[in-house]
Amino acid sequence: MPDRHELIIEPAQLLRGSSAVLFDCRFSLVDPAAGRAQYEAGHVPGAHYLHLENDLSAPAGRHGGRHPLPDAASFVATLARFGVDRDTEVIAYDASRFAFAARLWWLMRSLGYQPPRLLNGGLPAFIEAGGQLETAVPEASPCAVPEAGAYRGVCDIDGLRQAQSAGAVLVDSREAARYQGIEEPIDPVAGHIPGALNHPWQGVSAADGSLLNLDAQRAHWGDTLAADELVVYCGSGVTACVNLFSLALLGRGDATLYAGSWSDWCSWL
């Protein structure tokens, strides 16, 4: 089981100084321009901005979900533009209970990078701890672009069906109302993939955005944690990464992301 401090950094630690490359991943699904506007209004000193749709996703098509994984070669080139190679220390944050910073964590880990540490509690916790924001955009120091390789620990809809046929447990990370089909504010079809269990991604953190302790993480998963094989999805493959982050904390870094998630699944109906 990895040490919590390998995956999380506390605001007080960050305030003491760090040589890591910092990324601000704030984003709003209802207003895609809001995250960058918030960044420009004030961010952790030295932080660069990564946009969910422009940097951490590929353009959406008919299938593949609303936020397909970015082309691996393009993504590693983006990281290199900010001086990030496979061994660079990175810290990422958002203001949405890890919803978008965890996407960066998963992408980098999947491609064999040193995974970034996520700022516990995000930007609000940094401010609460006495952190001062700046508006200046830092100058990047690019590095050589490494070989991209291929994403690991991911499946498409065919891989999902094969995994389920082999007995994998499927986890739906969306809110209970969306899982149950009571409401669906984003995708054209309500409901969930047959056989999926519901473990909402918000169960990983407290209301203030801070990560719950390991006992609470285990309680979030219950018996599901013991499944031989886990495949995790959400609406579009973004907030599922929060659950995958939780699983990694608990020693289940072997769980698979169904990248297209519900938005891909329902596109085939």
Characterize the structure shown.
- With 269 residues, the protein is α/β, with parallel strands linked by helices.
- It has two domains: 4-128, 3-Layer(aba) Sandwich (Oxidized Rhodanese, domain 1); 154-268, Oxidized Rhodanese, domain 1 (3-Layer(aba) Sandwich), CATH 3.40.250.
- Helix 5 (101-110) packs across helix 10.
- It has helices at 4-7, 11-15, 34-41, 72-81, 101-110, 122-128, 157-165, 176-179, 214-221, 240-249, 261-265; strands spanning 8-9, 21-24, 47-49, 90-93, 117-119, 154-155, 169-172, 197-198, 230-233, 256-258.
- The protein is globular and about 50 Å long.
- The model has no long low-confidence stretch (mean pLDDT 96).
- Strand 2 (21-24), helix 3 and strand 3 form a beta-alpha-beta unit.
- The strands form two sheets. A five-stranded parallel β-sheet has the order 1-5-4-2-3. A five-stranded parallel β-sheet has the order 6-10-9-7-8.
Radius of gyration: 18 Å
Report strand order across the widest sheet.
1-5-4-2-3
N-to-C span: 39 Å
Structural class: alpha/beta
Number of helices: 11
Helix and strand succession?
HEHEHEHEHEHEHEHEHEHEH
Supply the CATH architecture of the largest domain. Answer: 3-Layer(aba) Sandwich
Topology at a glance:
Layout: H1 4-7, E1 8-9, H2 11-15, E2 21-24, H3 34-41, E3 47-49, H4 72-81, E4 90-93, H5 101-110, E5 117-119, H6 122-128, E6 154-155, H7 157-165, E7 169-172, H8 176-179, E8 197-198, H9 214-221, E9 230-233, H10 240-249, E10 256-258, H11 261-265
Parallel strand pairs: 1-5, 2-3, 2-4, 4-5, 6-10, 7-8, 7-9, 9-10
Helix pairs in contact: 5-10
